[in-house]
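User: Hey, my collaborator sent me this sequence without any context and asked if I could get a structure. I don't really work with proteins. Can you help?
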Amino acid sequence: MTRRHPSGGHRVAVTGVGVKSPAGNDLEAAFTAVLKAEATAATVPRLIEADLPVQFACLVPPFDLDGYLTRRESRQIDRTTQLLLCAATDAVEDAALPTGLAPGRVGVQIGTGIGGLPSMEEVTLSHAARPRDMPVHTVPRTMANSPATRLAMRYGFQGPCTTYSSACASGTTAVGEAARKIRYGDLDLALAGGTDSAVTTVVMGAFARMRAMSVRNSDPARASRPFDTDRDGFVMAEGAAVLVLERWDLARARGARIYGEVAGFADNCDAAHIVAPNEDGATASRCMRRALADAGLSTADIGHINAHGTSTVLNDRAEARAIERCFHGQSPPVTAVKGVTGHLIGGSGALEAALALLCAARGSVPPIANLRASQEADLVDLVIGAPRSVPPGPVLSNSFGFGGQNACLVLTPGDPDAAGPHPRTPQQK
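Assistant: No problem. I've predicted the 3D structure and written it out in structure-token form, which is a compact way to encode the shape of the chain:
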């Protein structure tokens, strides 16, 4: 008899992963980069030309679009949707989905924090003097649901197609909600993830005005430093990640390779401040505990934590306090991959869920890039300097966004050799 989820619903397997990230354009490349703590931030010439206070970011390495997008698609969609479709194509190929899927039983659940804002910025700047000449696809390009609906259209999936916008928690929320739909029988399969591409003059200028981003223009590679005493803000990034989620029993029946399981999910809201987290971490701590309870696990079962870890003073301190509260001062090893990848906004949670699952399966917790000393080290067990070996086991992955939006996933690993080099890797430039 197939084991059920502790809730009584279906278990949810992860059978495919696709990523387009600053750390690499496939999961194995990204895993290697975070394990080596190789920072990806670099100077961006167009930001210098715009005379912005912040002149660097983490960009997706160039890759060959042939086989991903038609010329028509390329004309009609913006970069946020482009990255999502490319990541999803890899995820579907990675999952080796069978033909003949019932389209009404397959859904698309995608998170984005910025959405089509960069496209609206581009059109506004180029057509401000004559709005009547705006491109005909301006509205669908800029609507926040464009990535999700374009993905559903590509494969003809007719189940629920939903866009989640919970700021920096958007990707995690999308994965968690997709898992719920499968668990409770609404779907048999879902493409879930997140995407954003916000390295534009207006968006970067706006975040800089808030003093939320690092201003280490002379040393961008050392700018993103989660939990480090000398951190001075996050580093903007772009990218997308998509996970293929399936009912566990159906995945097993078709002989699918299983990366692991989305075992638990919870979300809540601080309801305290539009950008700052609750300083005591109490609400975020409750979110972690609810995710653990949803998975039927205790704090002692968690092998490591993927922290949201943005490299901002307030966020990192509040998260450390939240972890300390949840784990009663006995935290497992804590990592934060944004020191390598930067902050993908809506794409971060999905990318980090995929990386955390692979790290958990292989029993190796990445060190936090650029972390030398930390005031938070007295609260949680930060991984510094070199990867930490741990027994393969469940991992907790956190995402916290503006407006106090908290989302947490509990993931349990499957086959440690599930991810090999992706067949598209040789095409990358």
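In plain terms: The two ends are 48 Å apart (CA to CA). You can pass these tokens on to your collaborator as they are.
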